[in-house]
User: Fold this.
Amino acid sequence: MKLRTFLCLLLVFPSLLFAQANAEQTMNQGAYYQATDANNRTLKLPQKPEHILIAGKAAIMPANALFLFPESQTMTIESAKTDQGLGDFFSFLRPDLDQKPRLAQNASVEELATKNSDVILTKTSNYEALCKKLDQLGIPNYTMNLETYGQWMHEINELGKLLKNTARAKQILALYDQRMQKLTDTVKAIPKDQQKRVLILQADRTDNTYAYKIAPDSWMQTWMVQTINAIPVWEGANTAANGWSTVSFEQIAAWDPDIIILVNYRIGSDQYLKAVYDAKPWAQLKAVKNHQVLASPSDMMNYIQPVASWILGLQWMAKTVYPDQFANMDMASEVASFYRDFYGIKDEQKLQTLVDAYQKSIAENQV
Assistant:
């Protein structure tokens, strides 16, 4: 009897050890601050990151995502340049960010390594130049893409896991959903024969020559027009697919859209708006005749791009393209509530600064 009991224990004991090991492994995994980045790499940090470095080109995009979380208000943050030309929103939120010189967007891996950060956040486009080298040095780094609506939804959720604040991630996604739902519920009732034909142009000027570019089909600018149930007339024309592509005036005239939206990320669109209305060749376009060439909205960032305020750009576009359907939407209120809900800004003076900047950006459209 004793021998049988002993043999049973010999059989059971390894199973018990295996179960205990599994339990310890699960517990240890749960102790990590862990998430999968946009390059499908899983990052595990032994403790909550308290010192984050936002590095590389397009640093503004991961900064947008990080600052949606309240942790960004207390952790140590160092960053590459995030001012596109209209002002720095992140030092507006945290003036202490300007107490140290900003990193150059092309700062070397060696310089980044001296910062001794817990993790480096960067755009996926910096993977080859930065992340592979950081991996070789054993420096934790995490990429974000944030170019499309789907990527925003997925990557905010993953960032919430990395910070172990999935509750805030869910809240952010719910806030986007609420605004999206109101908009899409309204525009889906617009009949096909009443859909507006829209053209978004990135405007630029070099040596007194104006140039206009169109976005790839897969980019958020195209998606925004589609989402408000309008027709992006340029769809299919940008075959490069990896960046803005220059378009000729002849092609713009052939499209002859109902509405043209001018975008410039470094300065306001006012000068480009004036140039279009002053140019004789443009005078025959339907949008010019009907005064429907419009400056895109902005405050310290232009809304017609994949930054967190893209939802404001989408709301503005819906109200602008279909004014009757969105007559009750007050964009000034939408701007203020966005910054309250998404970035936790309670200071009414700061909120008014952002609202004023938005209203100034579109003031020319009222002329």
